[in-house]
Specification:
The structure holds three protein chains of three kinds. By secondary structure, chain B is α/β, with parallel strands linked by helices. Chain B has 14 helices and 14 strands. By secondary structure, chain C is mainly α. Chain C has a single domain, classed as Amino acid/polyamine transporter I, CATH 1.20.1740.10. A two-stranded antiparallel ribbon of chain C has the order 1-2. Classes of the chains: A alpha+beta, B alpha/beta, C mainly alpha.
Chain lengths: 613, 429, 368
């Protein structure tokens, strides 16, 4: 049965694709100069249907309750959840008692010790009963004491009020709450969200609404240096787990009113906050729309981290290459926002995602823009070279040593042959042995406690390699090959891309062992075709190169900053120009000193230049 | 799970490849499964058609000590000679593998040495095309004719400095660029010259050394450095081999040899000459005094072929430059007064030698090794006309004139030559 | 019945595709062939055959201008009626398949010779076909983009071979300048315009190009290809005398083998395997795609992809019909490559003439 399924999968045909892919539309004019294929790579959606059938739901509703209709299973637990669900949809009652009961039920009160309900009486004439709810550990208790309890309990009497009234909420909100972020809530659903995110919600007798005041105060890591993407020259700050800190880090760099932050929630159980940031007058609205559509279209109960979200929203989850840029660095995010990308920030993650992520984005490091032009060109060349070494060097060695010995200089060949004299394995086993031990060293180096890490690296590489050679298990040249490959893989600035390339090399090693250079070139061709066929959020993966778009100033070579006049064409930005052709006005006549401003406006279609301060 | 079926396809492909890998594919050999032939000797067989000798590298010895723990004995031979009689070259490879464990491979065969007998009866011209057809052979292997048995020559390949005989032979052949005593002829050049009308091939001449120094008799004579052929050098030590001069072929048969000087002239005509030391007699002070110069070719020679009623006229011009390195007579050839004399004398010398060589090829060897026939291609418009021209016959009666243009450009490191202090005030300059 | 996904490829990618498809034959026997026809004047044949092809292309262009927005099969059926039109399409398909299978076999033999002398050709061709089939399955835009990406590298590699062989250059080999005579050269040139028969890609798949760009694409591709072919033949002749130049199966391989730049840079031919193989893949995948595409349009099928696998199997079977390598080359060279141009370039001319005769197309080009 399984076999039949596979055979029909491989040989059969599912019928024409019936779902349309998203792609960033170009104007007709552009479309002619460079090609774009629309929805060529669709797979029928019957696939996903089938998937559903094969994996029946096991227990319970995973948290997304919209389709929770299970008459058979009516355990207490389920019932409670069901009723709780109804509860949260309910509007806030005027009677304080009812509200309190609701709250207690919603938060599993006697059981859940983290939720605190504080009853109080407003010092008005006549006194009004009220209570506030907050989450212990999420809210700053000092802040609650000073800016909520104190004004409500002590200071309200200065302003004699008329007693229980339905507009107490508004009243309090406007006159008595010296908190900077306050909101009026009418639904219990919102109350729950607010309390869970650290706010304090206050209910008043006789008013059908509640006031939530921002009292977030939970422990989080302070802004630290970036750990995975280090630069020599340039800002050292990295993102932290706290979403708000992260958005503020970005906002600090792009001081523009057009920088929009939108919030979405993902994960039915953990209600994780996801922020989407983009420049309203720059980013293609279709792209923003698509990002929101994909994030909203996720039905799952737990999205812990940006990596999980990445898997849910990327175009080709099975590909070895990442299609979403993940970075720790606010400066990189902001520079990419200015290229027209959209940033997706998941709470509790120090990594911000940027879409679309294209192959060349993964080869760029923020440092390329901070060092001098000539250095950056050299850095980029080294990096491209490193990519090829990572993918091909071991395969190349295997192919040359076992298929194309005529290529090697005679002396080198003879020394390879003599080094292999006492090695008992074929070259492929040798190289796999060493590559696997290298992977082991790498993996172990990540997992071991911090202090031992470097030691392990030394032990792993030096001693293991030396011993392997001494024991005649591998030949010494191979150690060089493996070491250089390992080094090159770390020269690739993006972790995910580097992993992808590193993994690919095993395919190439196998191809080289089987078919020599023919195998390698076949592999390269297939790789090329698959990469060309990929898309990230509607943009072809190899975008500025294939399909050919308007020349970009930053692919392999980074042009000097004053020559980077346009934004990447493939992003289809609303404002295509970064700067006028003459960006260094001072190089022209002396007299025209202050006219840079007006020229700048000429170049801009969208009016405000986001980067201008 | 979108694009699923394509991934299945890829997966199926990969599975196929894995199967292939386990099945093995046939064309691959581990580097230590092959025995690398570094040089090859070909001779007539005593019983079978051919006697083939292979100089097979011993990798362990060549890559030297320091490898691994115990391996690599110092006194081990870096290569050893294997000789076998067989009906053909490729068959001999298989036959050698009946007693050599590793598969014989010609991939790193850097030189092919034929015996003089093979060259003379034309067998070499038959074998060479067959050699180029094989995938493993290098077209860039050097081709040589040996005056002794090739297997003996190969046995003598115990280089003084190199551990690798192939490196030794490649460097030896490469020395052409600064000695000019041997032609720069690789297998593919030999093949091209053999097939193309209008030029005949040559090859390097090698021979075993005598290794005997004659006793001093009190007087010696002046003999130019190129006036030797391989096997005649008076030398001792180093490798008991010499490469000097060239073998001349006509229609695939060896018809004669050139000595070192003639080979230099030959190279000048072919444009392959780079530089060489010339020791010539002092033109101004006859006697024992000599002038030592380094002579290099300035530009490629200009060769013009005309068709007249009397036959073909070939006008050639060689452009040489000199660097005076030593003057016994202490005449300052840097001075404009003396320079033309030396230049003229050298021009005449080369012209004479060149004329002699041309005549030799015209009448004695009847072989156009100098490639004038190639220039004759300019005379006609179509291939048919070229065939009607019958160049070999025309060449024998061609009137060749050689003009040498020699200029002294510098005089070593010195600007002036001052006389040696002498007790009597003998005014030399 | 809706034809889905009418891909269009832009100008630069189209040129890269056409040039790759046209010029890939230099990796096979092409230079040796040309030399066998033209001797010392072989480069003139390449040049003139390019010019001749331009004349043919002018007809193709006129034909395409008369029938915009129509597939090849539609046009053929429109002009000559469904039965005769079908016959025309079949003839194109059969010749296409033949050309593809023979060249594909040629590539298989190339790989055996250059890289894997002891491997069974069946395995090599199976893998080759799988890769090409995958690319064809992914679609024309992928192939065209791959061509566009690979083109500069391939061209660079070829130039490298040409330049590295400079120590063996000898201008005398180019003489006598007229080779086998002017008449002979021109006659061969017209015949060798068969080397451009892959141009039928343009008229058989007219809808993948933007109509107003076809002219540019065609002429530019022909010019670039002619230039590349002429340069390669010229440098090939500089390196080998004409007699020797006729001999090898893969002349460029022979040239790469002859590179000798000191003791360290020699025998580098294996490096070029990459470019040969990738070009071969592109050629075959473009061919497979084209074949399936024409068939799809003719049979009015919704998608070409189900046809890819059967096509591959047929190619594989046809490719093994010739018994040996020399047979393959002889069939390809001496029969098909000699008179192929009559069929391939004659067809649009014929259709054009018929269309003018019947007064079809042009302003009357309404789909009905």
């Amino acid at each position: 049965m399984q076999l039949k399924h596979w055979v029909s999968k491989i040989l059969g045909y599912d019928g024409p694709p019936d779902s349309k892919d998203f792609y960033l539309v170009e104007t007709d004019e552009e479309q002619e100069s460079a090609s774009e294929d629309a929805g060529e790579e669709n797979t029928p959606s019957s696939k996903s249907r089938q998937h559903k059938i094969r994996k029946p739901k096991k227990t319970g509703s995973a948290g997304y309750n919209n389709d929770a209709d299970k008459p058979g299973e009516s355990s207490d637990d389920d019932n409670e959840e069901q009723s709780k669900h109804d509860e949260s949809q309910r509007e806030i009652h005027a009677a304080l008692k009812v509200n309190k009961k609701n709250i207690e039920q919603l938060f599993n009160m006697p059981l859940n010790k983290d939720v605190v309900v504080r009853e109080l009486t407003l010092s008005t004439e006549p006194p009004v009963q009220a209570f506030l709810v907050f989450m212990e550990g999420m809210a700053d208790t000092k802040l609650i004491n000073n800016s909520i309890l104190k004004p409500l309990m002590l200071l309200t009497n200065l302003d004699p009020g008329p007693g229980i009234r339905p507009d107490t909420c508004t009243n309090v909100l406007q006159k008595h709450l010296p908190s900077n972020q306050v909101k009026k809530l009418t639904l219990f659903k919102d109350v729950v969200t607010q309390v869970l995110s650290g706010a304090t919600v206050i209910f008043f007798e006789g008013s059908p609404c509640a006031v939530s005041a921002e009292t977030k105060g939970f422990p989080y890591r302070a802004v630290d240096t970036a750990r995975t993407e280090q630069v020599v020259q340039g800002p050292q700050e990295g993102f932290v787990e706290n979403l708000r800190s992260n958005t503020s880090l970005i906002r600090r760099i792009i001081r523009s009113e057009e920088l929009i932050t939108e919030y979405l929630q993902v994960g039915a159980r953990n209600n994780n906050n996801v922020a989407i940031m983009y420049l309203a007058d720059l980013t293609n609205p279709d792209l923003v729309q698509e990002v929101k559509r994909r994030i909203k279209g996720i039905k799952t109960d737990y999205v812990a981290e940006s990596g999980v979200l990445e898997e849910f929203i990327e175009d080709h989850p099975l590909s070895l290459m990442p299609q979403i840029v993940k970075t720790e660095r606010p400066d990189r995010v902001s520079s990419m926002l200015l290229e027209g990308k959209v940033a997706i920030i998941v709470d509790n993650t120090p990594f911000v995602m940027l879409v679309p992520g294209l192959l060349f984005d993964f080869l760029h490091s923020p440092e390329d823009h901070y060092v001098r032009f000539s250095h950056s060109v050299w850095l980029r060349i080294i990096r491209v070279f490193a990519v090829f070494l990572t993918i091909l060097l071991p395969a190349f060695y295997v192919a040359i040593a076992t298929f194309h010995q005529e290529m090697i200089p005679t002396d080198l060949l003879l020394s390879i042959a003599s080094a292999r004299e006492r090695v008992p394995f074929p070259t492929i086993v040798e190289i796999l042995l060493m590559e696997l031990s290298f992977e082991l060293v790498r993996e172990a180096g990540v997992r071991v406690p911090g202090i031992i890490g470097p030691t392990l690296g030394i032990v792993g590489t030096l001693i293991l390699g030396q011993a392997a050679v001494a024991a005649s298990i591998v030949s010494p040249i191979l150690i060089i090959i493996v070491a250089v490959t390992g080094l090159s893989s770390y020269a690739i600035p993006n972790y995910a891309a580097s992993f992808g390339f590193r993994f690919m090399r095993f395919f190439f090693i196998f191809l080289a062992t089987t078919l020599g250079f023919f195998g390698i070139s076949s592999g390269l061709f297939v790789l090329l075709c698959l990469l060309l066929n990929m898309k990230s959020f509607g943009v072809p993966y190899l975008a500025p190169v294939a399909p050919k778009t308007a020349p970009s100033a930053d692919i392999i070579f980074r042009f000097p900053a004053w020559q980077q006049e346009t934004r990447p064409d493939y992003q289809q930005t609303l404002d295509t120009r970064r700067q006028p052709d003459l960006s260094r006005v001072w190089t022209t006549k002396r007299s025209k000193q202050p006219t840079g401003e007006s020229e700048n406006k000429d170049g801009d279609k969208g009016g405000n230049d986001a980067g201008a301060t | 799970m979108r694009r699923g079926s394509r991934h299945h396809l890829v997966a199926a492909l990969l599975v196929m490849l894995m199967l292939l890998f386990t099945a093995g594919c046939g064309s691959n050999y581990e580097p230590d499964e092959l025995s690398y032939v570094l040089l090859m000797g070909i001779d007539h067989g005593a019983q079978n058609r051919l006697r083939i000798s292979y100089l097979i590298a011993v990798p362990k010895a060549i890559s030297g000590p320091g490898q691994g723990g115990g391996g690599g004995g110092g006194g081990q031979q870096s290569a050893s000679v294997v000789t076998i009689e067989s009906p053909s070259i490729y068959a001999s490879m298989n036959m050698v593998n009946s007693f050599v464990g590793r598969k014989i491979s010609l991939m790193h065969n850097k030189g092919i040495i034929f015996s003089e007998a093979m060259a003379k009866d034309g067998s070499m011209g038959v074998i060479v095309p067959g050699l180029t057809q094989f995938r493993e052979t290098r077209g860039t292997a050097f081709i040589a004719v040996s005056r002794q048995k090739p297997e003996e020559i190969l046995a003598k390949m115990k280089p003084l400095l190199e551990t690798n005989p192939a490196k030794y032979f490649e460097l030896l052949a490469g020395n052409q660029s600064f000695t000019g005593y041997i032609p720069s002829e690789k297998l593919q050049d030999f093949y091209n010259d053999l097939k193309a009308g209008g030029i005949n091939p040559v090859s390097i001449l090698v021979a075993e050394s005598d290794e005997k120094l004659p006793p001093h008799s009190g007087h010696n004579t002046y003999r130019t450095e190129g006036d030797y052929v391989a096997g005649e050098l008076v030398k001792k030590g180093g490798v008991s081999l010499e490469a000097m001069g060239a073998a001349v072929f006509r229609e695939g048969k060896m018809v004669g040899i050139l000595n070192g000087n003639e080979t230099s002239i030959y190279s000048m005509f072919r444009g392959q000459y780079k530089r060489r030391i010339y020791t010539v007699k002092d033109p101004l002070k006859h006697g024992k005094d000599i002038v030592i110069m380094e002579v290099n070719q300035k530009t490629k020679p200009r060769i013009k072929v005309f068709l007249t009623e009397d036959g073909v006229v070939v006008e050639t011009r060689l452009y040489l430059e000199g660097n005076v390195l030593g003057v016994n007579s202490l005449i300052d050839y840097g001075l404009p007064r003396y320079r033309p004399a030396l230049e003229k004398a050298f021009e005449e010398l080369i012209e004479q030698e060149a004329m002699k060589l041309v005549e030799k090829t015209q009448h004695e060897y009847r072989s156009d090794i100098l490639g004038f026939g190639n220039k004759a291609r300019h005379l006609v418009l179509t291939q048919k006309d070229l065939e009607q021209l019958n160049w070999p016959a025309l060449y024998e009666n061609a009137q060749v004139s050689v003009k040498v243009d020699f200029k002294i450009r510098r005089t070593g490191t010195l600007l002036r030559l001052m006389p040696i202090a002498k007790s009597s005030s003998d005014n030399m300059q | 019945m809706v034809i889905i996904n009418q891909v269009k490829i832009g100008q630069s990618e189209a040129i890269a595709l056409i040039v790759t498809v046209l010029a890939t034959k230099v990796f096979l026997t092409y230079p040796a062939y040309i030399v066998s026809y033209g001797g010392n004047a072989a480069w003139q044949i390449s040049l003139i055959s390019g010019l001749v092809t331009m004349v043919f292309f002018w007809f193709i262009l006129k034909y395409l201008e008369r029938f915009p927005d129509r597939t090849f099969s539609e046009t053929a059926e429109y002009i000559t009626g469904p039965y005769l039109g079908g016959l025309i399409v079949i003839s194109v398909l059969v010749s296409w398949m033949f050309e593809m299978a023979i060249t594909f076999r040629g590539f298989g033999e190339l790989i055996v010779m250059v890289a894997l002398p002891e491997t069974s050709i069946g395995i090599i061709m199976l893998i080759f076909l799988s890769g090409a089939g995958l690319a064809a399955y992914l679609g024309l835009s992928t192939i065209a983009r791959a061509c566009y990406l690979a083109f500069p590298f391939t061209l660079g590699a070829v130039l490298l071979i040409l330049v590295l062989s400079y120590p063996s250059w000898n201008t005398d080999w180019l003489f006598p300048i007229l080779g086998n005579g002017v008449l002979e050269t021109i006659k061969s040139s017209v015949m060798r315009s068969s080397d451009f028969i892959e141009l039928n890609f343009i008229y058989a798949l007219p809808l993948v190009f933007y109509t107003h760009q076809v002219k540019n694409i065609g002429y530019k591709s022909i010019i670039i290809t002619t230039f590349i072919l002429t340069m390669i033949v010229l440098f090939y002749l500089l390196t080998f005398p004409a007699v020797v130049g006729e001999e090898p199966y893969i002349p460029l391989y022979q040239m790469a083998r002859s590179v000798y730049l000191g003791r360290f840079v020699q025998r580098i031919e294996a490096i070029f395997v990459f470019f040969w193989v990738v070009s071969g893949y592109l050629w075959v995948s473009a061919g497979v795609y084209g074949f399936c595409h024409i068939l799809t349009q003719w049979l009015k099928l919704p998608d070409y992809r189900p046809l890819v696998l059967p096509t591959l199997i047929i190619i594989f079977a046809v490719a093994f019909i010739p018994q040996s390598l020399p047979d393959t080359v002889l069939i390809a060279g001496h029969t098909y490559r000699k008179f192929g141009f009559i069929l391939v370039f004659g067809l649009p001319v014929l259709l054009l003439l018929l269309a003018i005769l019947f007064g079809k197309g042009g302003r009357n080009n309404a789909k009905g």
